[in-house]
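Supplementary Methods. Inverse-folding protocol.

Structures were first reduced to a discrete structure-token string of length 279. This string, shown here, constituted the complete conditioning input.
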């Protein structure tokens, strides 16, 4: 979506960018691809959603929060008599060679969140050493961030790196998966929404924007197997959603890792040193 906004900036085809990880929304805001707007609903949103708006100059806003993690297929793990992974460090063990799946951070906000999380947890040089080791265990870099969770549930991969609510969604479909919050700590997304600069239907876009921030809209999530933490304080937290208070979240630096300079540099380095490296 970010790439599409850049490509269409002289003649935008859409009015609202709804959902997806907040980092590319911040990058789009930095490049003025999105429009400043302060919703009357802003004061009724959770602190993290308001901070997302503030750091973008009110060109985006938080609509949900989701913690990063991974899932594993419990049946396959038992069949192979392997110990259950509980930490990021476990994913680079030799017994998981060719058994881990994640998305490509160039196309997936989920995977970029993972890359930025590992850098913040370990420091950049140790993080890239880790990613190179993990590369040997990766069977596929998917385009979409939720795909590894689905593949794990279907037994196509043993372990899938994804947002925890995506793994939970697969579990709710009666698939044999276990959701893991990595023991070292993990990052998170602030799913965001932005108005497109130069939108052809701005009045209608703002109506949608206000509706999407309302409890009526956000409360529909569980009907469609969406278990993120909603941003409006009046919206009930979905039953069975990951308990954010029990997850070891890092102090994710959205301003730095959502900036054009940092994203471009990290993605370029990952592509050159990790994705294109031999296994």
């Amino acid at each position: 979506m970010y790439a599409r906004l850049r490509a269409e900036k002289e003649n935008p085809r859409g009015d609202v960018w709804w959902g997806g990880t907040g980092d590319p929304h911040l990058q789009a805001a930095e490049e003025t691809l999105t429009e400043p707007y302060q919703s009357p609903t802003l004061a009724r949103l959770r602190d993290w959603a308001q901070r997302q708006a503030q750091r973008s100059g009110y060109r985006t806003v938080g609509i949900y929060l989701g913690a990063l993690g991974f899932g594993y297929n419990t049946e396959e793990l038992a069949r192979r008599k392997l110990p259950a992974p509980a930490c990021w460090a476990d994913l680079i063990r030799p017994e998981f060679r060719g058994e881990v799946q994640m998305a490509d951070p160039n196309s997936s906000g989920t995977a970029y969140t993972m890359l930025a999380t590992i850098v913040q947890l370990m420091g950049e040089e140790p993080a890239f050493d880790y990613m190179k080791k993990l590369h040997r265990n990766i069977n596929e870099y998917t385009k979409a961030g939720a795909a590894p969770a689905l593949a794990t549930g279907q037994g196509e991969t043993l372990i899938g790196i994804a947002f925890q609510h995506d793994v939970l969604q697969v579990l709710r479909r009666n698939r044999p998966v276990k959701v893991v919050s990595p023991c070292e700590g993990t990052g998170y997304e602030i799913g965001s929404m932005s108005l497109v600069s130069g939108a052809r239907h701005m009045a209608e876009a703002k109506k949608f924007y206000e509706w999407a921030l309302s409890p009526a809209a956000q409360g529909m999530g569980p009907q469609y197997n969406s278990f993120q933490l909603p941003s409006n304080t009046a919206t009930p937290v979905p039953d069975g959603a990951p308990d954010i208070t029990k997850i070891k979240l890092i102090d994710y630096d959205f301003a730095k890792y959502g900036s054009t300079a940092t994203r471009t540099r990290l993605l370029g380095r990952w592509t050159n040193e990790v994705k294109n490296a031999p296994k």
